[in-house]
Amino acid sequence: MTLQHFTQNVLAGEHLLFNDMLVAAELLFNEQTPADDIASFLVALSQKGETAHEVAALATVMKSYALQVDAPAGIYIDNCGTGGDGLDTFNISTTSAFVLAGGGIPIAKHGNRKISSKSGSSDVLEALGIHTFATVEETLTLLEQEGIAFLYAPSVHPKLKRLGEIRRAIGKPTIFNLVGPLTNPVPLKTQFVGINRPNFVMEYASVLQMLGRDRAVVVSGTRGMDEASLEGQNTFVLVDNGDLIPFALRAEDAGLPETPLEAIRGGDAQENAQILRDLLNGKQSPYFDTVLLNSGIGFFAYGHAASVKEGVEMARDSILSGRANDKLQAVIAFSEKIKKEGARS
Question: How is residue 211 annotated by DSSP?
């Protein structure tokens, strides 16, 4: 069976069954599959619209090729979003990771360099002085010591290099954007995921359920933002021990002012790093409020907060107490230590 066979089915408007997508996904990771065939398949899937079964099957295969990670015992959350919303906002989920860690939530955040944005998670971390060359063992040491770590996708998914090049050549979001947050090699029981497709929120929640999450929150913000937005209404589904519960929420429901998306535009990695530093030092702005909202949802997803509004107050305390910034400084110091030890060896 060739990938072209599946592409023809997809072009005919057929949704692939879970087992068929498992076969197609293996072909995506096969070095012998021509790059043009892979690109054609990914574009065809995107044009058709991916299904929950297609996403879950690709996530299953991709995770099977990831490095095995022996994480310290704990219940970890990941707040990595899908990216690909084209809105050029700053690095909201990366900033929120420090806020969640400052509030006592163990977070193992999966991330990558920019593929369809100006600054991916790993780009802004590098600009902050947090290096992406740490080994898995070093990353797990940081996770154990500080309750926060960043897993650089190419380091834990060695077979993604070629696919990353093909995705960059396509230049638009593909199914891999949807799958990225689902393939964290650290075992997750809980998750908060922002996606760029409001009409796919329920399906994405069902994927998380298929993949064994006990509790999770999926959100799509206004204009398809892959985070919760201060502008307009956010579309959610809560996964709660087998139940899929849809709900909607606006910024004012969480005690925050409605603010247009234009107020949280980001820039390149250096600009976004400065926004992150200022914010964790308590500088009030729409960036600050956006992180309060998204971190608040993280506290709610984890079960620390009984509501998003309560979670927002936990996030505010994490920042204004200095604990979130302490986590940032601890991760930078750990990274610098690794860099110096590497230079000596």
Answer: T
Q: How many CB atoms lie within 10 A of CB 170?
A: 17
> What residue numbers bound the domain in which 19 lies?
3-49
Q: Whats the size of the chain, residue-wise? A: 345
Mean pLDDT (the chain, rounded): 94
345 inside domain: no
Residue 84 is labelled as binding a ligand: yes
Q: 167 among the known binding-site residues?
A: yes
Q: For residue 116, say whether it is annotated as part of any ligand binding site.
A: yes
How do the residues of the chain divide into helix, strand and coil, expressed in percent and rounded to 5? 55, 15, 35
CB 237 within 8 A of CB 264: no
Flag whether 111 is marked binding. yes
Residue 241 marked as a ligand binder: no
> Contact 179/58 with Cβ under 8 angstroms?
yes
Residue 26 phi/psi, 5° resolution? -60, -40
Residue 2, annotated as binding a ligand: no
Give the residue among 53, 81, 195, 143 at the shortest CA–CA distance from 331. Answer: 143
**152 & 15 share domain:** no
State yes or no: pLDDT of 248 exceeds 50.
yes
33 and 99: one domain? no
Around 300, how many Cα atoms within 13 Å sit in the side-chain half-sphere? Answer: 23
Known binding residue 113? Answer is yes
Q: What pLDDT digit, counting tens, does each position of 47-82 carry?
A: 999 999 999 999 999 999 998 889 988 999 999 999
Range 153-171 average pLDDT: 89
pLDDT value at 45 more than 50:
yes
On whether both 100 and 40 belong to a single domain, the answer is no
Q: Was 234 annotated as part of a binding site?
A: no
- Domain match, 22 and 106 both: no
The response to whether 89 counts as a known ligand-binding position is yes
Report whether 110 belongs to an annotated binding site: yes
Residue 327 annotated in ligand binding: no
Query: What gap in Å lies between CA 186 and CA 189, rounded to an integer?
Result: 10
Q: What is the pLDDT of residue 116?
A: 45
Q: How many CB atoms lie within 10 A of CB 244?
A: 17
Model-level pTM? 0.94
Residue pair 272/127 in contact (Cβ under 8 Å)? The answer is yes
